[in-house]
């Protein structure tokens, strides 16, 4: 049985001009321990798939029109509100595309990290919570931990914020980590550091990773399997070696031939 199985998922947004079919009948399986990449140009529906897995579609103003998302035997789309709290942040967590909007600007970073522990472990003492927060920060190799702990997020660099979010995402030792464009907006050296870090954590913690990116090089280099999305559909899903050496779909052939980073104007 796959660890995560998405079946016939469709997601829509209501826009002023009509309905946007962001995800249109998408199915895929992710096996335990695998690195699964979702690639595709901007607007192809990658983040909407992640929102549905994380049950964040209501917050995004999206509607799930059809589908099932199994985490082991549990259909995530049927969870009660109380049960979602047992899964998200604990078994499945996510590093978001835009770190600043997921850090609270008026609460010190350290407090937010401790809160992420507390929500899922209400019985831990203050010092145990502090210890866990410190150990998560250590895992993401943040120098100058004490200062960062006592800072507000706007005082931190992009790479530091991305590390903080990574620390918060792994703090309760999830089984599945979804990373949505974890390196966008970071310079090349920091991008590499963050990717190396995620892979290192995968090795240490036995994580199953879903990496969402428009950068085909990242998918080719770091994933076992790749799904290529176009206009809300998965047009090819195969072992990454095949996708990048011997793609079947014409569009995927063009992408992998023409360029490694998808140009925005690509149809
Ligand atoms: N909150 C929203 N309201 C209305 N439409 C939305 C909303 N979020 C996304 N969309 C639309 O849904 C489609 C898929 O968007 P999505 O963010 O999933 O794409 P993406 O592949 O993650 O793109 P990117 O690479 O730019 O992050 C797009 O057409 C987008 O305009
Ligand atoms: Mg996105």
List the helices and strands and how they pair.
Elements: E1 4-15, E2 18-30, E3 35-39, H1 46-53, H2 57-60, E4 62-71, E5 74-75, H3 81-87, E6 92-95, H4 99-102, H5 109-120, H6 126-139, H7 145-149, H8 158-170, E7 176-180, H9 188-205, E8 208-213, H10 216-222, E9 225-230, E10 233-239, H11 240-245, H12 250-258
Parallel strand pairs: 3-8, 3-9, 6-7, 7-8
Antiparallel strand pairs: 1-2, 1-4, 4-5, 9-10
Helix pairs in contact: 5-6, 5-8, 6-8, 8-9
Adenosine-5'-triphosphate binds at residues 13, 15, 20, 22, 40, 42-48, 60-61, 97, 214.
Structure summarized in a few sentences:
With 267 residues, this protein is of the alpha/beta class. The protein has helices spanning 46-53, 57-60, 81-87, 99-102, 109-120, 126-139, 145-149, 158-170, 188-205, 216-222, 240-245, 250-258, and strands at residues 4-15, 18-30, 35-39, 62-71, 74-75, 92-95, 176-180, 208-213, 225-230, 233-239. The protein is globular.
